[in-house]
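Case study 2.
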Amino acid sequence: MAQSDFLHPTLMLRDYDDRYQNEDERNIHVWASARSLVLRLRVIAGCYQHGDLTYDTFFMWLAVIVERGPKELALVHWGDPRIRDLPQDEDALSTWLQQQRAPVIRQGTTRSSNVIPGHYILLDWDPLANTFYLRCRTPLLPEISSRCLSGNGSGGTGASVNRRGRKLVRKRDMACRITQEPATLRPRGANFTALEVAHIYPLAALDQANRLVSASVFPWLSSRDAADMPYNAILLRSDIHNLFDDYQFSVWKYGRENRDNYIYRFEKGGAPGMQNYKQIFPPRPATEANLTAGHASVTSTDDVSWDFFNVHFRTALLWHVSGQGRSPSTNAVLTAEINRPDQHLAHYRLQPAYSLHIT
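Prediction:
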């Protein structure tokens, strides 16, 4: 399909060789303005609504993805900017917005309402001026740009070499922390076939740890042996381990109400087979059978540090939600551009006289 077939004549694509390449994997698309001599709207975030993503959670994700601005953000539920007949200059666009009276969803006012699929424009709310601004927003790039699959701890590229750490994780968890499928107990010891030790913070990125984790847990990542311990690993079924290492899903500490440690999938076809798993479980409690078999000697107090899960989740957002959801080396920017060559537009301001409808 040619660009002219799906773009309004006043809109153009720049620095992009084809259509929005991750569009089929998303039903939520967030657009914002860019620093330019013309008014440009570009995709800065997007994901697939699997029925479990609330506006409050999505606003927290956006605060991670875009460069820092005011504390309160807002979203306008909009039509697709590539095909919608938008005005070509600032004044005309302001008048058009007032006429449309598009509903604005403010951060902190939506509670647990699910995000409605569609296209959104990201705004900033200025409480002093009592108005909204269409700001320049720059999506951040992932700090961890690649990852070797960590394997089951028995060797290979990126794999664990610390047999003691692997044994302690097995003793503590005794089952996949997501599916709860247990290791099979045998007189000669548990059978962990198809259950693997998954590192949360990747061992291959230890040289970046001082920038990505808090000072309190950085010593735990100061060396490969230090990082290859239970506080940085969980037991996962092998297929889920691969999805976890590829950041196709992650665990968000602040999930839906009364459901912390919630699992989120970010794309329509991402993390296949994960739809029935909603949260990560704590280590299995010690049972008489486990103790008799010589396992479950590690207590829940030796569980994972959430600092590492936070880094994993941030990386997943920047890989799969930020921009087009592609790796930074190929992440071209899709831009819907409104011609305005005569003026540098640092930001676009909605007219204060226009009272936007708050939902």
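Residues 1-18, 149-160, 339-359 have pLDDT under 50 and may be disordered.
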